[in-house]
């Protein structure tokens, strides 16, 4: 029998742990995933979220460690995406009289569309008394679906925060202070960069609402519960949701015969020479979701491709497509397009066009090198990067 974990008096973690999942929505989850669900034992037995459908048995077993699942009175669906709500039909069959709550409009409609189940609508500021506790709902649309909301328990001072503040990180230790904090912050940043980043403005509004709460814990739908480092994760979300950058550069490239690679290495060294820390990334060896982790707070992004069949390389096109979908619409990042070619510089030009479409600032023209760059050509890249940095700092 799988055990529930009491995270606060009469509040239990009853979710599922997927140790082996390595891909979620196109990004790598090298540390696995948890699907967090929470059970509150009050006059009304309340379940907050469920699990991915394949973890229904784990969910039911853990709930059964605390109470007969048929005695559940209330189910709160903070988010209908099926890694959160996939086990809702199972709970509905076991406890058919349990009242289900979801956000007005989108949440109720999505529960019906996914499962044919009716839910009671709630909106921001609505409350639900479950006995000793009163739950307060705050809708957080587009963080990262239209239906999203968070739930706050006043007695426990716990914010059940849904996707916000989450991490894809499988562990049996439920709290931030029980795990490697550096790894948790890394996974929180990677989660933000690959899931929440396009909705920074909406996430910032949700963050402002959170700041007014007395918090002992933030309990997200994925990963560890924050209890000892709440201020730190709020500070990081403040930076991420306001698109703050650091004096860092990411140089992303692919290469066929090392010409573009030589340019990438020179560009990376040029940033370092100007006092800007730099990360050199070969897309052949680094997954695009990890590149977004590096990009999340980097001010400078240089992207290089040679020309193949009158196009940039497919690997670079894939990265740029993924990046464009995640790129916030009002950020101020500085871009550089570069690469090599044989008889037409179409690859680097296409990179430039994609960066332009993604609203990057492009203070210098595309840098296209025919055939193999000479030492003089590479030295010129130092000047190019210097001009780029000077323009940005001006």
Automatic annotation (TrEMBL):
Q: What is this protein called?
A: Metallo-beta-lactamase domain protein
Q: Which domain of life is it from?
A: Bacteria
Q: Which InterPro entries match?
A: Flavodoxin/NO_synth, Flavoprotein-like_sf, Metallo-B-lactamas, ODP_dom, RibonucZ/Hydroxyglut_hydro, Rubredoxin-O_OxRdtase
The UniProt entry, under Pfam families, shows: Flavodoxin_1, ODP
Native species: Collinsella stercoris DSM 13279
Provide the coiled-coil residue spans.
none
Could you tell me which residue ranges the Flavodoxin-like domain spans?
A: 249-394
**Family designation:** In the N-terminal section; belongs to the zinc metallo-hydrolase group 3 family.
Per UniProt, what is one GO molecular function of this protein? metal ion binding
